Amino acid sequence: MSELKLADLRKEIDRIDDTIHDLLMERAQVVDNVRAAKGAEGIKLRPGREAEVLRRLIARHHGTFPKGALVRIWREVMSAYLKLQGHLAMAVYMPQPGAAYWDLARDQYGSQTPMTSHASVRGVIGAVQSGDAAIGVLPVPTMVDTDPWWRHIYSRGENTPQILSRLPVASTEKVRGTFEEALIIGLPSDDHTENERYYTALEFNQEVSPRTVLANFAAVGLDVDIQGTWYDESMRDQCLFLIEADMVLTQDMAEMQTFIEKSEATVTGMQKLGAYAVPFTSDELK
């Protein structure tokens, strides 16, 4: 290829770069207009809307540019514009130096978002409740957790956070060489998308086995997963379960009413703890 032809191609790349830059600046102006229209409302996280944007872009994508790179670029772009709308900061659970949650948070919310580390899950939850952070990053609950953090957001109190999303948004992404995951918490949002999973806290007045709870759900035709339990011997009148399902579970559902009737223990509480958009699979990013 001649030097003249290469020079022309480089000019074309420069023209495209300028166009991208112009559009980014134009988008920033639209975001400024949105912020002005909202007034003093400040940042409102919209994880459902963000997931829809990424799915739409992936669906229309073609050519050799990697879809995984497209997702990372747009995550950086969306986070930068979100930061323009107000105070955007992250509180990240870091039980020891080098924990992967820091990298997951940075990948999701960009290089410009301030982050603070917290040695305890209560510190993360407290930072979100107080407004010091708009986003909290916490471990995905497991059945072996002896003091699960999600029980601390089982509350009707003001500014109690909810689960908003799951990291990473692409299930193929590795963090420090391993596939690590985390959940994002923030102030409650009614923003949802089609492909979601929902978390519900279920409270009984006495200890109940997970096997019994799962059997009772299956008996009423509800396919759920138990992602955590909590029972304190000193509080024998409270046994909590973290239920994950592809729908919002409410007490006015016919299936839940039958579930409650069939349960040997009394169901004393039920509350949605949040939801997350299902991450992209490796097949979706091919």
Care to describe what's here?
This protein is of the alpha+beta class. It folds into 3 domains: 1-38; 83-194, D-Maltodextrin-Binding Protein, domain 2 (3-Layer(aba) Sandwich); 197-276, Alpha-Beta Plaits. Helix content is 37%, strand content 20%. It has 7 helices and 9 strands; from the N terminus they run H-H-H-E-H-E-H-E-E-E-E-H-E-E-H-E. The protein has a 5-stranded mixed beta sheet, with helices on both faces. Helix 4 links the parallel strand 1 and strand 2. Helix 2 runs antiparallel to helix 3.
Which terms summarize this structure?
single chain, 286 residues, alpha+beta, D-Maltodextrin-Binding Protein, domain 2, Alpha-Beta Plaits, 3 domains, 7 helices, 9 strands
